[in-house]
Amino acid sequence: xxxxxxxxxVQCLDSRGLHRMAYWEWGDPDCRDVVxxxxxxxxxxxxxxxxxxxxxxxxRVVCPDVVGRGRSDWLADPMGYSVPAYVADMxxxxxRLNATRVDWVGTSMGGLIGLGVASLAQSPIRRLVLNDxxxxxxxxxxxxxxxxxxxxxHFASLEQAADAMWAVSTGFxxxxxxxxxxxxxxxxxxxxxxxxxxxxxxxxxxxxxxxTPELAAAGEALLWQSYDRLTCRTLxxxxxxxxxxxxxxxxxxxxxxxxxxxxxFDGVGHAPMLVQPEQRAVVSEFLxxx
Length: 290
Prior knowledge:
globular; Rossmann fold; 10 strands; alpha/beta; eight-stranded mixed beta sheet; 35% helix; 290 residues; 10 helices
């Protein structure tokens, strides 16, 4: 089996027509046990290379580039960059995969997408990993993300891009230079001027910046309703220094709905990148436990 993923696409419906969503597939393409790994707000599916390569020894692993990111199309209407629309895209993807058993690993936004899919009636999700995200998102984290999301950027080299991205990503926790370069490589693309730019549609910031306190409160209520509907076994990961998922919210999540099992990683904020062996081991043990 190749140690590199296969790039595929699936067509999905939006308000203006169709768009193509890219996904990276690891492992035996005929295996009907599938783990979907979904990335954060401005990231892309290759974030999971380390984890996917390990899990693919036992299951098929699928890592989508959520629309507007990576190799996926950009939307004509930026207001389509929303979690309910992403959930619809993932339902289309799951139909394409023809899986009999589906587990979900979602980091930040990818966790909210997984929560949406798993809360649907007759959802195929068997086990759910929510990586540093829950129904309550701290306003301070939204303000921090808003300082860089969608801002124009030009990098003369991959190394310069990696340094710039590290400046806004220290919450990801300790990584070696080699690990961080690997995480950065797929975060940029050729800008046509001999350099690099971020590998996502800057317009994903449009609906993000439209969030008001009232919309945030309504969204929080809906997310708790979705969480309380979950029936799948759930693991909640939290960076012990996270500014997005508070300790209080994490504790609530262990007491209601699916009563998630909580595991915290010291020395990490928002969000653990599941590159380090000890982080991958926690996820693997949960997914493959009897």
